[in-house]
Design goal:
The protein is 46% helix and 21% strand. A hairpin with a 2-residue loop joins strand 1 and strand 2. A five-stranded mixed beta sheet has the order 4-3-5-12-6, sandwiched between helices. A five-stranded mixed beta sheet has the order 9-8-10-7-11. The relative contact order is 0.13. The protein folds into three domains: 86 residues, Arc Repressor Mutant, subunit A, CATH 1.10.10.10; 107 residues, D-Maltodextrin-Binding Protein, domain 2, CATH 3.40.190.10; 96 residues, Periplasmic binding protein-like II (D-Maltodextrin-Binding Protein, domain 2). The protein has 306 residues and is α/β, with parallel strands linked by helices.
């Protein structure tokens, strides 16, 4: 006995004839007849008798089908499970990202939790080096890292490119300017990102080459911390715009900065990793949210200062 014979039995039960069962299964009527004869021989009793132009189940046939039908239903369920695994992946979606980009991921997680409720989503926030390790070790499906980070042993592609912005409290004298330049920060209380941040040497070089001295009053390990300090009137800071826009308007002013400080972001995967439907869906959502943020940033930076 095999599952194909169980499928044949179901088709006859539903259709009432060998010819219609053959149409349902896409085979010939002789193939149905042979399969039925083999099954009855294996079982040792008759399943159907002829009735006019069709087949009528015997008492033994009905009793046997009552036991076999749940098995057939379970196989169908297994097929559905296999299709979901093939198309959507399995288990939770695990994403690692830079702290400055967590607001992007939070928005995507909220969206996917509504669209993919059967797939828990886990978000981890770390430095680029740590994100790289999490992805390469298979602990995360993919990660977002700074463009300066080594991608040896990983598959990488460009995700987005930002430009650092200047943030400050609304009462700060520089808030009246539409754009901030290095010269505007001469002697200002300045909040710097940590030395481990890839943007730190770029920022320091810009001011050093121009001979402009800032009053370094604080360091924030993340752009979020720098924004929080700026909101509390500790000073001004140059930060990743994603972190700034997450709290813009909450006692925080965002201004474009010249010259441009590029902040490239890469999305990385473990080498030779198959991108499941769930991963592809999350990346598409992530890119859509990022584009919305970039449009908002352009709107803010082009707005007139009162």
């Amino acid at each position: 006995m095999n599952f194909r014979q169980i499928e044949m039995l179901r088709a006859i039960m539903l259709s009432g004839s060998a010819s219609r069962a053959a149409e349902m299964l896409g085979v010939t009527q002789p193939a149905i007849s042979r399969s039925l004869a083999e099954l009855e021989r294996d079982l040792g009793f008759v399943l159907f008798v002829r009735s006019g132009n069709g087949l009528r189940a015997t008492a033994e046939g009905i009793a046997f089908w009552q036991e076999a039908e749940p098995i057939h239903r379970q196989i169908d369920n297994l097929r559905d499970v296999a299709h979901r695994i093939r198309d959507r992946g399995v288990g939770s979606l695990r994403i690692a990202t830079l702290p400055a980009l967590t607001s992007l991921l939070v928005e995507v997680m909220a969206r996917l939790s509504r669209e993919q409720p059967r797939h828990p989503i886990a978000l981890r926030s770390h430095s680029s080096v740590e994100v790289r390790q999490l992805v390469s070790s298979g602990q995360c499906n993919f990660g977002l890292i700074s463009g300066e980070t080594s991608t040896i042993g990983l598959e990488a592609e460009s995700f987005s490119r930002y430009e650092a912005v200047c943030v400050m409290a609304p009462e700060h004298p520089l808030a009246r300017l539409a754009r901030i330049r290095p010269e505007d920060l001469e002697g200002c209380d300045f909040i710097s990102v940590s030395p481990e941040d890839s943007a730190r040497p770029i920022v320091d070089t810009i001011f050093a080459e121009r001979g402009i001295k800032r009053n370094l009053v604080a360091e924030g390990y993340t752009s979020q911390l720098c924004c929080d300090l700026a909101r509390r009137k500790v000073g001004v800071a140059l930060v990743n715009p994603v972190a700034a826009l997450a709290v813009a308007g909450c006692d925080l002013i965002v201004r474009p900065f010249t010259p441009t400080i590029p902040l490239e972001v890469l999305v990385v995967f473990a080498a030779n990793q198959r991108h499941t439907h769930l991963v592809q869906t999350s990346l598409a959502a992530l890119r859509a949210v990022d584009q919305t943020l970039l449009n908002r940033l352009r709107s803010i930076c082009s707005a007139q200062v009162p």
